[in-house]
Amino acid sequence: MTIAPLDVPVHPPHDLSVLNWTHRLSHLGPDFFTPLQPTPLAAPTWAARNEALRTELGWPAALFDETHLQALGGNALMAGSMPLATVYSGHQFGQWAGQLGDGRAIWLGEAQSDHGPQEIQLKGAGRTPYSRGGDGRAVLRSSIREYLCSEAMHGLGIPTTRALSLVASPEPVRRETLETAAVVARVAPSFLRFGHFEHFSAQGDTNKLRTLADHVIAHHLPECRERAAQWQGNVYAALLDEVQERTAKLLAQWQAVGFCHGVMNTDNMSVLGLTIDYGPFQFMDGFDPAHICNHSDYQGRYAYGRQPNVAYWNLYCLAQALAPLIDDHDMTLQVLEVYKTLFPRCLGDAMRAKLGLVGDLAPESEREADWTLVEDVMQHMAAEKVDFTVFWRQLSQAVSLQSKNATLTDAGWRSVTDLVLDRPRLQAWLARYGERAGQGSFAAMGQQMLRTNPKFVLRNHLAEIAIRQAQLGDFSEIEVLHNLLKSPFDEHTGFEAYADLPPDWAGQLEISCSS
Ligand code: AMP
Ligand code: MG
After folding, report:
1. Is 267 tagged catalytic?
2. Closest C-alpha to ligand 1, atom 11
3. What are 382-409's pLDDT values in tens digits?
């Protein structure tokens, strides 16, 4: 028996757990969190269990048995876990929001895994001292979206928090309508956010700020020590640099798959450069740089095309928070400057890869010419709102089908030109692209493109179908989608409908912050 009932002390004996726990975060001390227990959840049932992740982490099958259903739903404590909620602050929609914190995510501890210690959080596990007016719960609808999108991002090779399990309950939760509760067990090496640093900086508490920074460097980003050599030995400048680099790379990956996060507040920005806090996110259907996926974002602050600049703005907030540690104004600004060249370079590389034009050592002139090629086709896509995912996949398919040692032909491009109204414009672009691609190696190039441009992304309407079925008690569609999305570059014969253009009703879906 590895589970203790909730009324046991918060520190049950370690040797009874199927997971081996460490508690490095709790060593930070009580100013960083509040110990507390999850609120019991009525009549929990498994809605999804991520066997792939469990196996990847080397965690035992018992983690998904009926006893652990109680633990991962918040009704019992796994022996050795030490539940707590952390405090952070942050900027929301461009304004300082003051103290926030884990309002409904309860941290169980760090469990050893085959990929190093992993923090486990139960999202939706009840009120905490940081819940403000909230009920501490998450609804099934948003929990399904988080579960599936975490795994979809991982399948795409994009850094993200992961989802281990989804536990559903008939417990009512009031949002715009009455919905039901669910708990996602999510996993990451660390859930620390920019907002954790902002919190202690805003309090003027440089000692705690340093404790937090030293914790991150020691346990999560030890490479900062080496990187400090680039910054006159200043390890905190190196920390900012490491975070800006990870953020630049992450944003390039988001943009390259048409992912909109929806709520890029500084409390939703991971210090490890992970995609975190899945709310009103969307994979774009028709390409539109001004696309706003969050119906609560009236100004379009977090529109798709603005995400890279918002990330920079958020890094600026992080830099201000770290300023007392870096203690060198000019150096802090210099670190931030790096983003301005690094992000475009990462995006350029990501978009060149989508075109099958790889090679990190490409000369600058070639990169510039390739970027013009990218911009020109994106302008055309935007003008006609061409479906982002379908376009790149069709292009990859068309390239891969060109016969060896042949030049690309108009007939071979038919499936791509069929996607637009202004065919001569796209044909002219394809001719330029064909010329740039050269001759002879299209099959290999196409294969590489098919590993870069996914066939399957979690479109809103696909998530919505799984949600509607789950709300009626049938969780099978979650499993179907998870299977497709964990290998989104594979063909998955028989599941073509999941790669189709969205149905008309998808345009009416309104996804807000409500979760
Ligand atoms: P979000 O915009 O989802 O990142 O949430 C912003 C803040 O509100 C975070 O501190 C969350 O923990 C908190 N929060 C969101 N929803 C709830 C809820 N239902 N109950 C308690 N706190 C919540
Ligand atoms: Mg959040």
Report:
1. yes
2. 103
3. 999 999 999 999 999 999 987 654 556 6
